[in-house]
Amino acid sequence: MSLWLSGIGVSRGIAIARVQKLHAGDLDIPEHSLEPDDIEGEVVRFIGAQRRAREQLHEVREKIPSGTPGEITAFIDTHLLMLEDRSITDTTLAHIRNQHINAEAALRQTRDALIAVFEQMDDAYLRTRRDDVDHVCARILRVLLRSERQLPAKADNEPFVLVADDITPADIIILAQQHVAAFVTEYGGPLSHTAILARSLGIPAIAGLRDARRLLREGEPVILDGEAGHLLAAPDEIALEFYRAKQRAQAQYRAGLVRLKGRDAVSRDGLRAKLLANIELPEDAKVAEENGAEGVGLYRTEFLYMNRKDLPDEEEQFDAYARIVSAVAGPITIRTLDLGADKQVDSGRSHGPTPNNPALGLRAIRLCLKEPELFRTQVRALLRASKYGRINIMLPMISNLQEFRQARAAIDTVRHELIGEGHEIADQIPVGAMIEVPAAALAAPMLARHCDFFSIGTNDLIQYTLAIDRVDDEVNYLYDPLHPAVLQLISRTIESGSRGGIPVAMCGEMAGDPRYTRLLLGLGLTEFSMHPASVLEIKRMIMDADVGALRHAVQGILASTDLQEMRDRIAALDA
């Protein structure tokens, strides 16, 4: 008898294969007191385990094939850097020496404290970086406990669907070389490591499928639909034939996308759209360009500030920005610091007690304006890097005109300072607002008179509008990009930008999701920024579209007062 299960589709594609479970087992972490004479021996044992964990990751890194997407290597490099991080090493050693406890218990305390900090973060993307801490500490713990993670041993080349509670980046690299057909995890969501890496490798995946290891039998055949988030266990022949046909159609479609490289994203009725990439590392710029991205619509800068007790100085930031700007052929939109006051980004000095709701607290542009020296250092580095390419500066979490004008005045002041010091600065550096707060979308007509551009951050805009946290497994089912209130705010922002004569881009996940491309074209969007792997598919959607007809249809959708009718008409756009 077939079993139908549903989770969160995080990487599109169809997989038909047999189940292989990852039997990791929860780590049983002992805790016991040490005699004074045993303390330094325990310190040596921890340092040795940390060294072995580094060796393991280096071994995995050496196995990464050439041509693998840059972010695959980046995840391993991030874990290697964290293994060198003094916040892990020093804190754990202090617990051993001060509390006279064993290394495993000391590391658990360190891990739990660091994860608590990440879980307080307001940015959903950054909050999922708690996984890095968990994976790195788990690797050291497994060495200490002599409990290795057992990946499926595949002597043959038969593809399989891996079912696990969670999967580390190192596991994914090894499994990808063992003909894994798809991933299923019981935890995680669209921003989890599994999701990001599966999308980069083109491997179908479902996250958040609770009790999957209990409900699925080892070796049983399954069909996985990574777009819909559905898994069918023990399928009958009718279901198998249906999904095999769907697999063949998708493979043919993907093969056709390659031919679009080098072609402009022009619709059937002549509208020219701009396709940009969201990137994090200089290596990603090459991948983005190879996939036809015309520039970078979002470059995050928070990683310079994280996992450290001191602030990155101007020279360190300048070097980082100069490298990324030099690596990008087209324009690059760099988002200024988007961390909150609950993070220790100022040499350990606390701004006060952690707020009950960091997402509504002192974060992003609010923090930068309250801590002007923090903002000034970053702006100096950004402006100095402008001589190496075309930079746009994007201010996150703008909620009113006063914030934008105050930030822009600070940028102008820094410009005059640098010119006076003899630095070469680009003549034109557009400064824009990230529209991710409902108040900013509602105030868009006013903001458009002062901003050089808008970029819609749909991830936060949806969360703030609907008052839900999409990383929270209890409520993420309410995350709805097609909610009428969300569509009205997007429409208002695009229209305000058009009337104000400024470009409007979208850098949230909606921009890279082909399910929404026709709707966004109908709303008037012409600049899409997305994961590099999505560029060609979005280009295909645009080239097949009649934008004039879509805009007429979408106006009728926005005017609809019946929710079901509205959703039916949106679905019909792709028919």
Automatic annotation (TrEMBL):
<dbReference type="Pfam" id="PF05524">
    <property type="entry name" value="PEP-utilisers_N"/>
</dbReference>
<dbReference type="Pfam" id="PF00391">
    <property type="entry name" value="PEP-utilizers"/>
</dbReference>
<dbReference type="InterPro" id="IPR024692">
    <property type="entry name" value="PTS_EI"/>
</dbReference>
<dbReference type="InterPro" id="IPR036637">
    <property type="entry name" value="Phosphohistidine_dom_sf"/>
</dbReference>
<dbReference type="InterPro" id="IPR008279">
    <property type="entry name" value="PEP-util_enz_mobile_dom"/>
</dbReference>
<feature type="binding site">
    <location>
        <position position="470"/>
    </location>
    <ligand>
        <name>phosphoenolpyruvate</name>
    </ligand>
</feature>
<feature type="domain" description="PEP-utilising enzyme C-terminal">
    <location>
        <begin position="259"/>
        <end position="545"/>
    </location>
</feature>
<keyword id="KW-0460">Magnesium</keyword>
<comment type="similarity">
    <text>Belongs to the PEP-utilizing enzyme family.</text>
</comment>
<feature type="binding site">
    <location>
        <position position="436"/>
    </location>
    <ligand>
        <name>Mg(2+)</name>
    </ligand>
</feature>
<dbReference type="Pfam" id="PF02896">
    <property type="entry name" value="PEP-utilizers_C"/>
</dbReference>
<feature type="active site" description="Tele-phosphohistidine intermediate">
    <location>
        <position position="193"/>
    </location>
</feature>
<feature type="binding site">
    <location>
        <position position="335"/>
    </location>
    <ligand>
        <name>phosphoenolpyruvate</name>
    </ligand>
</feature>
<dbReference type="GO" id="GO:0046872">
    <property type="term" value="F:metal ion binding"/>
</dbReference>
<feature type="binding site">
    <location>
        <position position="460"/>
    </location>
    <ligand>
        <name>Mg(2+)</name>
    </ligand>
</feature>
<keyword id="KW-0813">Transport</keyword>
<dbReference type="InterPro" id="IPR050499">
    <property type="entry name" value="PEP-utilizing_PTS_enzyme"/>
</dbReference>
<keyword id="KW-0598">Phosphotransferase system</keyword>
<feature type="domain" description="PEP-utilising enzyme mobile">
    <location>
        <begin position="158"/>
        <end position="229"/>
    </location>
</feature>
<dbReference type="GO" id="GO:0005737">
    <property type="term" value="C:cytoplasm"/>
</dbReference>
<dbReference type="InterPro" id="IPR006318">
    <property type="entry name" value="PTS_EI-like"/>
</dbReference>
<dbReference type="InterPro" id="IPR000121">
    <property type="entry name" value="PEP_util_C"/>
</dbReference>
<feature type="binding site">
    <location>
        <position position="300"/>
    </location>
    <ligand>
        <name>phosphoenolpyruvate</name>
    </ligand>
</feature>
<dbReference type="InterPro" id="IPR040442">
    <property type="entry name" value="Pyrv_kinase-like_dom_sf"/>
</dbReference>
<keyword id="KW-0418">Kinase</keyword>
<dbReference type="InterPro" id="IPR036618">
    <property type="entry name" value="PtsI_HPr-bd_sf"/>
</dbReference>
<keyword id="KW-0963">Cytoplasm</keyword>
<dbReference type="InterPro" id="IPR008731">
    <property type="entry name" value="PTS_EIN"/>
</dbReference>
<dbReference type="InterPro" id="IPR015813">
    <property type="entry name" value="Pyrv/PenolPyrv_kinase-like_dom"/>
</dbReference>
<feature type="domain" description="Phosphotransferase system enzyme I N-terminal">
    <location>
        <begin position="6"/>
        <end position="129"/>
    </location>
</feature>
<keyword id="KW-0808">Transferase</keyword>
<dbReference type="InterPro" id="IPR023151">
    <property type="entry name" value="PEP_util_CS"/>
</dbReference>
<feature type="binding site">
    <location>
        <begin position="459"/>
        <end position="460"/>
    </location>
    <ligand>
        <name>phosphoenolpyruvate</name>
    </ligand>
</feature>
<dbReference type="GO" id="GO:0009401">
    <property type="term" value="P:phosphoenolpyruvate-dependent sugar phosphotransferase system"/>
</dbReference>
<protein>
    <recommendedName>
        <fullName>Phosphoenolpyruvate-protein phosphotransferase</fullName>
        <ecNumber>2.7.3.9</ecNumber>
    </recommendedName>
</protein>
<comment type="function">
    <text>General (non sugar-specific) component of the phosphoenolpyruvate-dependent sugar phosphotransferase system (sugar PTS). This major carbohydrate active-transport system catalyzes the phosphorylation of incoming sugar substrates concomitantly with their translocation across the cell membrane. Enzyme I transfers the phosphoryl group from phosphoenolpyruvate (PEP) to the phosphoryl carrier protein (HPr).</text>
</comment>
<feature type="active site" description="Proton donor">
    <location>
        <position position="507"/>
    </location>
</feature>
<keyword id="KW-0479">Metal-binding</keyword>
<dbReference type="GO" id="GO:0016301">
    <property type="term" value="F:kinase activity"/>
</dbReference>
<dbReference type="GO" id="GO:0008965">
    <property type="term" value="F:phosphoenolpyruvate-protein phosphotransferase activity"/>
</dbReference>
<keyword id="KW-0762">Sugar transport</keyword>
